[in-house]
Amino acid sequence: MTEALLNRELEKSRNDIESFFEDFFRSQAPGLAAVNSWGADFIKRIRPFATGGKMIRGCLVRLALDGYGAVPGRGIGPRAARRDAVKAGAALELFHSAFLIHDDIMDDDPFRRGKPSLHVQYAAMAGRKGHPDAAGFGRAAALCAGDVLIFLGLEILASLESPAPVKTRILGLFGRELAAVGPAQVQDVYSGKVSRASSREEIFRLYTYKTARYTYFLPLAAGALLAGAGPAALRDLERIGVDLGLVFQVKDDELGQFGDPAATGKPVGSDIGEGKKTLYYLYLCQALGPKAAALYGKKRPTAREIHRLNSLIRRLGIPETIEQDLGRIAGRCAQRIRRASLPAGFKDALKALLETSLKRTF
After folding, report:
1. What is the C-alpha to C-alpha distance for residues 214 and 232, in angstroms, rounded to an integer?
2. Rounded distance between C-alpha atoms, residue 293 and residue 285, angstroms
3. Is the separation of the CB atoms in 278 and 203 below 8 Å?
4. Beta carbons of 110 and 117 less than 8 angstroms apart
5. Mind giving me the DSSP string for 297-353?
6. Quick check: pTM over 0.90?
7. Collapsed DSSP state (helix, strand, coil) of residue 60
């Protein structure tokens, strides 16, 4: 599969998920609006938020289903399996959106996807109404909006048409993988406030559980389960999915450090302001020692401060060192794809996915 064909397949899946969301949110609106005006307001805000991203996670469910190939005689036809792939993908996008809303609150990020973060939106609304603690209300309202997204995602998963054993395995998979994000997120927040540099092993472990597993392994495994994949295929997808997710996160760090805000939808330098213990921080500490700590963790660094730090990072050759790390992960991933016990067409799709991830600019 070429990268162009991969992108067309992902775009088709994205369109299917958007169509599902159109009907789903329309059906949910009356029930939430019947609670109070905040319920109606949630729908107004969380629908565009949930559909405003790339939806890569949700689209990968369908990619895996089609790539693995539906197994006949499982009590569900191809059309129903594809409907379930769309549903599972949509649910994952809602869970992901909830994580983003909560993450923006924890990191006090003012923007997401080029627009004010949800807690900022609610704080502004409360401020206009004269609320005595507009910022506190904004955080509380956004937390609740994130919770609503989680529960709506569970409702979607409950509607899967697959046979009970398959449905149970998918629900268990979602529960295990999404639960692991919590302690990883706590570690990320905690380490951002201390000066000690994390080791490479700690950084990659954090990346694995905070991003990689639920971004790639979870949707690929869900799609494969819908197609009737066995334990051997899932083990292969776990290793491949984690590597793909690590590539994704390392590239994400690069975009957060040097990217274009117009493309990423977030201000450059947010990792610097939050003191994130990325590979950039690790290698900077190795080069400068304790002095490096003073360069990170200053909330809302100025454009000049970011430019000076990035110039220093480049002079020290840190991007090239990280590129070597990325190359090792990508090489290992490509080898695992070649050796995997997966259909040839699916392996081609995974290769194209790896190549696309290595080139991404947003």
Report:
1. 19
2. 7
3. yes
4. yes
5. --SS--HHHHHHHHHHHHHTTHHHHHHHHHHHHHHHHHHHHHHSSS-HHHHHHHHHH
6. yes
7. helix
Tokens of 261: 């805000």
> How many other β-carbons are positioned within 10 Å of the β-carbon of residue 290?
9
Q: What is the mean pLDDT of the chain?
A: 92
pLDDT, tens digit (0-9, with 9 covering 90-100), for 225-265: 999 999 999 999 999 999 999 999 999 999 988 877 766 66
How many Cβ atoms are within 10 Å of 28's Cβ, its own excluded? 18
- Asked if 142 and 104 touch (Cβ cutoff 8 Å), the reply is yes
Mind listing the pLDDT tens digit for each residue in 26-44? 999 999 999 999 999 999 9
Mapped onto helix, strand or coil, the DSSP state of residue 111 is strand
The C-alpha atoms of residue 67 and residue 80 are separated, in whole angstroms, by: 16
Contact 278/271 with Cβ under 8 angstroms?
A: yes
Q: What is the dihedral of CA 142, 148, 154, 160, to 10 degrees?
A: -110
**d(C-alpha 85, C-alpha 104), whole Å:** 28
Condensed to tens digits (0 to 9), the pLDDT of residues 60-72 reads 999 999 998 865 5
CA distances from 241 to 192, 193, 212, 333 (A): 26, 30, 7, 9
Tell me the C-alpha to C-alpha distance, in Å, between residue 110 and each of 105, 139, 156, 190, 281. Answer: 9, 12, 30, 20, 23
Spatial separation of the C-alpha atoms in residues 106 and 108, rounded to whole Å: 6
Question: For residue 72, which amino acid is it?
Answer: P
> In this prediction, what percent of the chain has a pLDDT beyond 90?
75
Token pair, residue 247, equals 């590539």
User: Which fold does the domain 3-359 belong to in CATH?
Assistant: Farnesyl Diphosphate Synthase (1.10.600)
**Per-residue tokens: 313:** 């990072």
Residue that is written with structure tokens 């046979």 in the block: 163
Instruction: Give the model's confidence band at 325: pLDDT under 50 very low, under 70 low, under 90 confident, else very high.
Output: very high
